[in-house]
Write a structure and sequence with these properties.
The complex is a heterodimer. Chain A is mainly β. Chain A contains no helices and 11 strands. Classes of the chains: A mainly beta, B mainly beta.
């Protein structure tokens, strides 16, 4: 069974940092491209970052470019999101999502981890 | 950036009735359009990709159509478990991958 489990969320002050993790199991992690998608409270979905299977191709949404860094460790079946210079508007549930189904659609999602940026 | 606009924002439908949801792209995305369902407190679930191909395990009452800039998700006979928020997503021209704002299907 495919499982994605996020961790690392919490309360952080504006300007602070946080590192999210996504533990993958039930599939060959190194064969799949991965993404982070977030959802602000009561709002819609926002794609924020993509990483290819071996990490050679990376993309970011403009809203997080220069502040967030996506990475992966295929030996540990893990995806990461390093978030620096956090802003109040970064408050959201952060989902990791696997590329699958169609190209660049998301066939499996984690349950999400809540990041709250507040003073 | 391709903007995705969904309508209506809220759709009130009785169980057993047909629901028709719309998604419009600001420029052509060909058939590179997906639909997701999200229930409260849960992650989204992929329903449709390639505008009309059902994802694994998705019931036949869900169907997608359209191409270019106009797309439709139809739920032929709403079941209780179908009341949720539905999002479209384009993957033709990216980054960024973009989602619509969502349509909430509620019980009438």
């Amino acid at each position: 069974e495919v499982q994605l489990v996020e961790s690392g969320g919490g309360l952080v002050q504006p300007g602070g940092s946080l590192r999210l993790s996504c533990a993958a199991s039930g599939f060959t992690f190194s064969s799949f491209e991965m993404n982070w998608v977030r959802q602000a409270p009561g709002k819609g979905l926002e794609w924020i970052s993509f990483i290819s299977d071996f990490g050679t191709t990376i993309y970011y949404a403009d809203s997080v470019k220069g502040r967030f860094t996506i990475s992966r460790d295929n030996a540990k079946n893990s995806l990461f999101l390093q978030m620096n210079s956090l802003r109040v508007e970064d408050t959201a549930v952060y989902f990791c999502a696997r590329v699958g189904g169609g190209p660049y659609t998301f066939d499996y999602w984690g349950q999400g981890t809540l990041v709250t940026v507040s003073s | 950036e391709i903007l995705m606009t969904q309508s209506p924002v809220t759709l009130s439908v009785s169980p057993g009735e047909r629901a028709t949801l719309s998604c419009r792209a600001s420029q052509s995305v060909g058939s590179r359009l997906a639909w997701y369902q999200q229930k409260p407190g849960q992650a989204p679930r992929l329903l449709i990709f390639g505008a009309s191909t059902r994802a694994t395990g998705i019931p036949a009452r869900f169907s997608g159509s359209g191409s270019g800039t106009e797309f439709t998700l139809t739920i032929s006979s709403l079941q209780s478990e179908d009341f949720a928020v539905y999002y479209c997503q384009q993957y033709n021209n990216w980054p960024p991958l973009t989602f619509g704002g969502g349509t909430k299907v509620e019980i009438k």
